Amino acid sequence: MNKKKYLSILVDNHEGVLTRIASLFRQRGFNIDSLTVSATNDSTLSRVTIGMSGDEEEIKQIINQTRKLYEYEGMFEIDPNDSLVRELLLVKVAANEHIRSGLLELATIFKAKIIDVSEGSMVFELTGKPIKLDSYIENLKPYTILEMCRTGATALQRGKVKMTK
Amino acid sequence: MVLNGSQILANVLIENEVDTIFGYPGGAVLNIYDALYEYSDKITHIMTAHEQGAAHAADGYARATGKTGVCLATSGPGATNLVTGIATAYMDSVPMVAITGNVPNSLIGRDSFQEVYIAGITMPITKHNFVVRKIEDLAPTLRTAFKIAISGRPGPVLVDIPKDITAAVTEYTAAPKQKAERQLSYSGSSLEEIAEAVNKARRPVIVFGGGVKGSNADKILRRIIEKANIPATHTLMAAGVLRWDMPENLGMIGMHGSAAANKAVNDADVVVTVGSRFSDRVALAPGKFARKATMIHIDIDQSEIDKNVKTDLHVVGDAETVLGELEPLLDETKHSEWFAQIDSMRRDIPYSTGGEMMHPREIMEIISEIGGEDALCVTDVGQHQMWAAQYLHHTKAENFLTSGGLGTMGYGYGAAIGAQIGTGRKPVFHITGDGSFHMNMNEACTAVTYNTPVISICLNNTVLGMVRQWQTSFYGKRYSSTDPGRKTNYVKVAEGFGLKGYSCKTADEFRAALKEAVALNAPVWIECMIGKDEKVLPMIPGGGTVDDIIYE
Question: What ipTM did this prediction achieve?
Answer without folding.
Answer: 0.87
